Amino acid sequence: MQKQKAEARAHWSGSGEAASEAQWFAVLDEVGRTEFLGYDTEEAEGVVLAIFKDGGRVMAANAGEAVEIVTNQTPFYGESGGQAGDSGHLASAKAKGQVTDTQKKLGALHVHAVRITEGSIAPGDAVDLKVDQERRRATRANHSATHLLHAALKRVLGSHVSQKGSLVNAERLRFDFSHPKPVSPEELEKIEAQVNQVIRQNSDTATRLMPTDQAVAAGAEALFGEKYGDEVRVLSMGSDLDAGKAYSVELCGGTHVHRLGDIGLFTILAESAVAAGVRRIEALTSEHARRYLSGQAEIAREAAYAIKTPIGELAGRVAQLSEERRKLERELAEAKKQLALAGPAKGGDDGMETIAGLKTVLRLVEGVSPKDLKSLADGAKSQVGSGVVAFVAAADGKASIVAGVTDDLTSRISAVDLVRVAAEALGGKGGGGRPDMAQAGGPDNGNPGAALDAIRKKLGELAPA
Predict the structure, then answer these.
(1) Phi (first) and psi of residue 442, to 5 degrees
(2) Cα–chain-centroid distance for residue 130?
(3) Are β-strands 43-53 and 126-131 bridged in parallel, bridged antiparallel, or unpaired?
(4) What SS3 state is found at 57?
(5) Can you say whether residue 165 is alpha, beta or left, with left for phi > 0 and alpha for psi between -120 and 50 degrees?
(6) Spatial separation of the C-alpha atoms in residues 43 and 348, rounded to whole Å
(7) If DSSP codes are grouped into helix, strand and coil, which group holds residue 392?
(8) CATH class belonging to 2-131
(9) Is 298 buried (19+), middle (13-18) or exposed (0-12) by CB count in 10 A?
(10) Rounded to 5, what percent of the chain is helix, strand, coil?
(11) What was the pLDDT predicted at 13?
């Protein structure tokens, strides 16, 4: 018992938990560690040893209260090693409660978060503890799949891969690992295929207790962030037929499937960056994977129906339509620019005028995106030969302004000065570029023509050359 308490203190040291966690040391000193029965059963009897409410110890809990309960033994897995804690039900002769979560404190105490639904419960009461079997089954499948994923990553990406973190619950799994670059779609396909190939072996998983140093020396993978005692559980899964050894061998205190076929199916959802040199894979197994893939198939069927093409030709047809759309968008943008140059400006005039002896094209335009205004100004400069051009486009509450000055006039006139006064006229400020071409933006105040009037005024201040 003294050795177990010392190990628990070492487990807690440096964990960063709040000072209030010190209460669990008192409980551990008083009642000793919780005996975990969950490897072999999902239902067991226990005795209530301590009850906590709002951080303080209480001598009873009544219906409607949310409390934390410690028992002498439990089938409930306490959250640790990336695996979520179990939920389920608790009942005594006088009370019933819903176990919403289970936490593992000091690496020794399983603390049940319980909402009392009926009656009253107190220390010393005998209780029946029942784990939510479906949630445990799904969590087991995801946890076992993370081990297979780890092994597949090493085989596909290289031996440099090591686990940097994981999260396993009933809905999905998340696995962080060391790798210097994004995993390619082809590599992800190989990884997913390998994991499913091992699942289809449907072989028994094997666990055994071994001295930690012997287990590591034998090649068992130690998991990131885990602290191990003198003796550890070693989990072996699947067969690597080429190498003539188990596909995955890791140290793990979590719960796992009994046969690989219990995982059912494995599918990768996403691969992303977490930090420099650390990548993340999110995946699904079993029924969640089936539902996800079924949903993806339904989306594909609906898309194929919408564009009237066989589902097997969907990808190629979508790529073709996408390219056709880009081409049409380019042609439409070009047509709008040509129309803006050739046709009458908004308001009816052609936008051509002479100011201070300078040929100018000052226009409000519609249907031209801000990114196309510069090329529109370039075209107008070519038409005037020598002069000043400016275009204003307003849409979605914003106005964009572009001004251009032909090279022979930039010693007298700066396009930057022109767009700045135009932006100020609309209630904006700033703008930048070069003396021959500049751009600015501002709010659409309902009178975008004020920007062009500001440019006319600025040009009118110049004496004719």
Answers:
(1) -170, 175
(2) 33
(3) antiparallel
(4) strand
(5) left
(6) 84
(7) strand
(8) mainly beta
(9) exposed
(10) 35, 35, 30
(11) 45
Which stretches within 223-370 are classed as H helix? 286-306, 314-342
- H/E stretch holding 28 reads helix 22-31
CA atoms of 73 and 124, how far apart (whole Å)? 13
DSSP tag of 158: -
Task: Specify the pTM.
Answer: 0.73
Q: What is the pLDDT of residues 371-404, one digit of tens each?
A: 888 888 888 898 889 999 999 988 777 888 999 9
Gap between the Cα atoms of 94 and 118, Å rounded:
8
Query: Low-confidence residues of the chain, pLDDT below 50?
Result: 12-19, 345-349
DSSP H helical ranges for 130-182: 133-157
Positions of CATH 3.30.980.10 in the chain: 136-297
Output b/e per residue, 397-414; b: 16+ Cβ within 10 A: eebbbbbbbbeebeeebb
Residues 6 or more apart whose Cβ sits within 8 Å of residue 381: 387, 389, 404, 405, 406
CATH number of 136-297: 3.30.980.10
Q: Do residues 164 and 214 make contact, with C-beta atoms less than 8 angstroms apart?
A: no
Comma-separated ranges of CATH 2.40.30.130 domains in the chain: 2-131
The pLDDT score that the predictor gives to residue 428 is 85
CA dihedral 272, 276, 277, 281 (to 10 degrees): -20
| Residue 68 tokens, joined | 């934390």
The CATH fold of domain 337-460: Diaminopimelate Epimerase; Chain A, domain 1 (3.10.310)
**DSSP state, residue 122:** -
Are the CB atoms for 107 and 12 separated by under 8 Å?
A: yes
pLDDT tens profile 405-437 = 999 999 989 999 998 999 888 888 888 899 999
What six digits make up the tokens of 263? 């995982």
Q: How many angstroms separate the CA atoms of 92 and 71, rounded?
A: 12
**Residue 435: strand, helix, or coil:** coil
